[in-house]
Amino acid sequence: MNPALPLVLAAAALLAGCDRVAALASATPFASFESRCASLPPGRIDVVHVPKPVTENFSLANADLERFAEPAAAHHRTVGLTRAQFGYRSTLELDGLEDPRGGRSCARPRVRVEVASSEMTVYVAREYRGDPCREPLILEHEHRHVAVFERYGEEVVPLLARDLDALVGGGVRYAPTMAEVQDSMRAELTTHLEAFMTRARDDLALRHAAVDTDREYEMLARTCGATPDLVR
After folding, report:
1. Does residue 143 lie within any of the structural domains?
2. Positions in the chain whose pLDDT score sits under 50
3. Residue 123 belongs to a domain
4. What is the pLDDT, as a whole number, of residue 116?
5. Total structural domains in the chain?
6. 3-state secondary structure of 99
7. Which pLDDT does position 169 carry in this prediction?
8. What's the rounded Cα separation, in Å, for the pair 149 and 99?
9. Domain span at 78
């Protein structure tokens, strides 16, 4: 069975996005502005999960891991830890036109969001490096936390894509200037993605808590035997 070991769930990392605006020349200069806007390339929403590598680290002692860990029950000592940040990178691109007479601009957006955790580090206290009973149990447990991050990233991709498609869609956006189209789109995306990250923090906290149970701590002691430096 698996030990239940404290997890550091760091604040969500909001990775900076970038914007691009392409002003397209019209092949039919005598067509109406609206018809030229309607012929802009279709908008697009791409949401992808980007897996990140996982490393194992045995260099820190119990006391070092205690400083990293979130508060745990008083009788548990931190013998393993998973550190990662969950976040996203967003890119907004606009294909648009400006009315040469001034005062009107239109654009269709292309949005790409990469959902990912940071590179994850699984720590095992160096006191248990090479322990034939505890080390594999600690590692197995911590990799369950890794799996929580990975599964969550995969699960939210279609949900976030659906929500962004409803928010942004492929329709033409109009504003007096191209800069205003861009600013409006960026503000909508930022608001939605920040709300998404708030939900993600709460969802992930619940999923990790389901991995860290008292029963898991007790199972480690029953399987490998309690020792003074493990349970206090």
Report:
1. yes
2. 1-19, 25-27, 72-76, 227-232
3. yes
4. 92
5. 1
6. coil
7. 79
8. 47
9. 8-223
**According to the 3-state scheme, what is the secondary structure of 3-58?**
CCCCCEECCCEEEEEEEEEEECCCCCCCCCHHHHHHCCCCCEEEEEECCCCEEEEC
Q: Which residues pair with 48 in a beta bridge?
A: 114
Say if 59 falls within a structural domain: yes
What residue type is 49 in one-letter code? H
Q: Which H helix or E strand runs over 1?
A: none
User: What is the model's pTM?
Assistant: 0.78
Look at residue 218 and tell me if it is in a domain.
yes
> pLDDT (tens digit, 9 = 90+) per residue, 191-211?
999 999 999 999 999 999 888
Supply the pLDDT for residue 170.
77
- Residue 212 has a pLDDT of 83
Separation of alpha carbons 189 and 182, rounded Å: 11
Amino acid present at 160: L
Exposure string for 10-19, b = 16+ CB within 10 A, e = fewer = bebeeeebee
The 10 Å Cβ neighbour count of residue 153 is 22
How far, in Å, CA of 98 to CA of 109, rounded?
A: 15
Which DSSP state fits 69?
S
pLDDT at res. 30 = 57
Burial class (CB in 10 A: 0-12, 13-18, 19+), 206: exposed
Calculate ∠ Cα 191-197-140, nearest 5°: 170
Element (H, E) at 78: none
Q: What share of the chain is helix, strand, coil (3-state, %, to 5)?
A: 40, 30, 30
Tokens of 231: 């349970």
Write down the pLDDT at residue 63.
83
